[in-house]
Amino acid sequence: MGKTQWYLFDYGMVISNAPTPEDWLNLEDAAGAQLMDPGSPYWQHRLDFDAGLKTSVEYWSLVTGRDVTESRTDLLDTLDANQWSHFNLETLDVLEELSSQGARLALLSNMPAPMVARFEQAAWTGYFTKRYFSSALQLVKPQREIFDHVLRDLGAEPHEVTFVDDAPVNIAAAQELGIDALLHQPGIDLQRELFAPR
């Protein structure tokens, strides 16, 4: 097994924490629909939005169950980005430590284009030499093709990449390719887990 050449991080629930109940209420008030439940239209149509297969207007119209204007979608996109902007300070500390050691860092996130645009100038993006977003690639985790693309672009063998993600299905997909993958769970000591023998 070769030494890690790249650390590849997910965004949501790794760099960011979960939205608060207040966040969901604000978004639901603006949308006029119940969204927080895992079976809600927010989640049912999310992968297509993340993959760039649906525009904001198309996505939020499906979520709300009615046609929405571009000005309304701009508000919904803003509230949506805001609720995924609560940072996991422990992860940021790990990114800072890795960066200070000269580690090569990359990001791989299922993220819709409007959110990507809102985060483009965010300070946390500066940690990453490479950033891969599903909406730009029109691929989503856990599709094998998105991992293949990342490996090709990094010029890395699977065993040279350590991947951190909160979704077991994404971890399993990465491990099938031979990527060293670590499941990020609430309360995890990420620094210890990253450098512990696995």
UniProtKB/TrEMBL annotation:
Endpoints of the signal sequence: none
Q: Which InterPro entries match?
A: HAD-like_sf, HAD-SF_hydro_IA, HAD_sf, PGP-like_dom2
> Which PANTHER family has this protein been placed in?
ALPHA-D-GLUCOSE 1-PHOSPHATE PHOSPHATASE (PTHR43611), FLAVIN MONONUCLEOTIDE HYDROLASE 1, CHLOROPLATIC (PTHR43611:SF3)
The cross-references to NCBIfam families, in alphabetical order and at most eight, read: HAD-SF-IA-v3 (TIGR01509)
Protein name, per record = HAD family phosphatase
The opening ranks of the lineage are: Bacteria, Bacillati, Actinomycetota, Actinomycetes, Micrococcales
